Amino acid sequence: xxxxxxxxxxLEGFRTSGRRVLLFxxxxxxxxxxxxxxxxxxxxxxVVTQVSALxxxxxxxxxxxxxxxxxxxxxxxxxxGGATFRYPFRYGYASVGTVTAIGDGVAPAWLGxxxxxxxxxxxxxxxxxxxxxxxxxxxAPERAVLxxxxxxxxxxxxxxxxxxxxxxxxxxxxxxGLLVTALLARFPL
Length: 189
Known about the structure:
Elements lengths: L4 E2 L11 E9 L2 E8 L7 E10 L4 H7 L30 E8 L11 E4 L6 E5 L4 E2 L6 H4 L2 H14 L14 H10 L5
Antiparallel strand pairs: 1-4, 2-3, 4-5, 4-7, 5-6, 6-8
């Protein structure tokens, strides 16, 4: 298994009545718990997770207990439902899986489709199809799960507004730094 990827289950081992979730329970403590999982309601899909990426940034701070407990977990992601970093809490925001069931009003073409979602770590989840991004055919789930990293790299470049013939220095060559460098290499800088 690749470093930084949580394996909470496989399609073969999945039970439709429940799922496993990763829960931050105290500083430097996590648990994997079983919880029930209802069928998808109208407009939503059940996704069985293939991979879920761990963040070396905010998620590591959350694991260490270094975030204010009343700080809201990313308010732009509905999957977190207004939660804060007060223990116990669920976290994560990069999951790739396969749609295995759909609610009323969802096109049958979604069934069997591999998708990306901004979801906490879990072996399965139910989400609105409007919050699922189809993964291009042939793209490995271990690469597709890095979508938030690429999104951050693109936003950094847009914020920096590099112009023709600018000299650009990328400090830090972690995943995001490498993505920024690869994207900037395509520019006439």
